Amino acid sequence: xxxxFKDYYxxxxxxxxxxxxxxxxxxxxxxxxxxxxxxxxNPEAEKKFKEINEAYEVLKDxxxxxxxxxLGPNWQHGQNFQPPPGFDSSRFRSYSSGGPSGGPQFEGxxxxxxxxFETIFGGQFRGEQSYQGDPFxxxxxxxxxxxGRDVEVGMELPLEDAFTGGSRTISFQExxxxxxxxxxxxTKSLQVNIPAGIKNGSRIRLAGQGSPGxxxxxxxxxxxxxxxxxxxxxxxxGNSIIYDLPLTPWEAALxxxxxxxxxxxxxxxxxxxxTGSGRKLRLRxxxxxxxxxxxxxxxxxxxxVPEKPTDQERELWEQLARTxxxxxxxxx
Length: 332
What we know:
single chain
């Protein structure tokens, strides 16, 4: 049988005389570069990762390395070769039992060792599919535990709920692994504490409620992005709440006291005489936010007139027009 030679020293970018410490450092550097978790959707990186794992498995073990180095003076040329006459691979098969003490096992679809490796050290690695160890730590090699992805979910709140805060329930679709090993969507419900005065566009972090980690790694975080729903009475401008207050012309001209709704309950408000349409009056601390960042409620005066005045009202308006000296337009 003829198989393609693999230059393990070249794969790890070390010399043939490299020490065990140099081999370990080289392997960790290469593993960081080509780890499949760090190179998703890159089959070339996955292939390279398999090759450097195989190279390190051989060169880190003195007996395996000695056998590999004995293959002949043409090891560096990468040509096909025949195993040495009388070669017996069975004495190396104790390494193929798998696990932390017996050698590597593969999982996650990365595949097993090459025909070259199996020709030299025995074929019992084929089909064994679980990794042990951490390529970036001191415990060997293989994929490490990976934290799950963070997830962002939109959450719409009525303006009243954003103002008062409190406990709310949110439900959303989450992808989970079913009993058959296939992914499926499930509805997940969580109780969420909404801070009082939360602003439109704010995010709430729920630690550990995101996507599950890989190989027993921690779950990611869930972020709730708050959207404050439109309100029939109030409008939002940053932290400020705008309320349009309709007034009659005489109320605006003479001044009055009116009852004004707010998110904290209705309040009595004095309207000063001579208040023009569009003027904004302020109720402090009635907006969103908290502490020094809490906004105000702005009362925007809107002068309203009757669409169909009575005959008497029309007569009074005409009398006012004849006697008033007020000129709102100064056209020169």
